[in-house]
Amino acid sequence: MGMMNTHREIAEKIALPDEMAVISHMRPDGDAVGSTLALGLALKALGKRVHMWIEDAVPERFSFLEGASLIINPPDTLPEHVECVICVDCGEPKRLGDTGRSLVESAPFTINIDHHETNTLYGDMNLVEGGAAACACVLVPLLDALGALITPAVAQALYVGLSTDTGSFQYGNTTAQDMRLAARLIECGVEVGDTNRRIYQEFPAGAFAVQREVLNNMVIEENGQLVHYSMPAGKCAELGVGREETKDLVDIIRVLQGARIAVIFEDMENGLIRISLRSKDPAIRVNDVAAQFGGGGHAMAAGIRVRGKLDEVRSAILDALRSVLKNSSV
To answer: Which helix (H) or strand (E) holds 261?
Structure first.
């Protein structure tokens, strides 16, 4: 396990190489895309040659960001002149995907910048702030230390990361400091109305088919404290949607009044089960449950990827969550 470093130490190291890469986790969310793009664009403006990689495509809802097309799938081998790979918003190398993880392992030097409490400090240098609402929050002081200009494009990418990881500033992880950061980004050129419309008010028709499926088949138990939905293999094809439309399913059910835990189970059709967990009660840390099954994340938002049969995996995880509910006070 590596050591923690300061913003200044990381900035001094980043200033040295001429060519580097920025990479984030597969199945990217707004913070992964925004952090990759913000750091990549800022480094380019400083004269660096920068590659930006994410194993899955940038979701359509974030494709409006300036420079989003520069984020591509990682190559099979590390480009010859890349001296440093910077990982953002990724708690552990396996979340980068097989190709991304291989590139990080073969890199001459790696820097790990993140905000997940369960981060494994896998970089040669590590800048991890587990209490930060988003990786974007960790990046701004770093950009300041680099002397990088926060242009409107960089500010918008950071704003998307901050807004999405705070649930549009609705989650309990939102602090006064986050609101001050949002104000600064707005001052740097973010058009709030247009940006929020694109993130939260523009959904493809397929997303509604998925929402209907989830709402019609969700299960409510434990006197309404636990709500979950399971997407069986082949359901996406049946609905005529891609995996992108399943990204935020847990947010559909977490709003149920009285629910303290929301869970989505997805059979990925390759023996892999993907689980998204959310807590609405600070007393319930779903990342502790996720850790029992090889997952991780934040106290109130975590995930698991595990191989097995959907019924068996679901039964084991629900049993663990029921135990947590039983042992916690309402």
So the answer is: strand 261-267
Q: Which residues constitute the domain of residue 176?
A: 7-200
DSSP track, 161-178: HHHHHTTTTTSTT--HHH
Which residues, 6 or more positions from 97, have their beta carbon under 8 angstroms from its beta carbon?
Answer: 25, 26, 55, 56, 74
**In this structure, are 222 and 173 located in the same domain?**
no
Which of these three, 166, 200, 234, is where a domain ends?
A: 200
**CB neighbours (10 Å) of residue 48?**
16
Contact 113, 25 (CB under 8 A): no
Q: Per residue of the chain (330 residues), what is the pLDDT tens digit?
A: 578 999 999 999 999 999 999 999 998 999 999 999 999 999 999 999 999 999 999 998 999 999 999 999 999 999 999 999 999 999 999 999 999 999 999 999 999 999 998 899 999 999 999 989 999 999 999 999 999 999 999 999 999 999 999 999 988 889 999 999 999 999 999 999 999 999 999 888 888 999 999 999 999 999 999 999 999 999 988 988 877 777 789 999 999 999 999 999 999 878 899 999 999 999 999 999 999 999 988 889 999 999 999 999 999 999 999 999 998 865
Q: Two tokens at 317?
A: 């995880």
Question: Is 290:296 a contact under the CB 8 Å cutoff?
Answer: yes
pTM: 0.88
Residue 167: count of CB within 10 angstroms of its CB: 16
209 in the same domain as 196: no
Q: What CATH number does residue 278 fall under? A: 3.10.310.30
From the number of C-beta atoms within 10 Å of its C-beta (0-12, 13-18, 19+), residue 270 rates as exposed
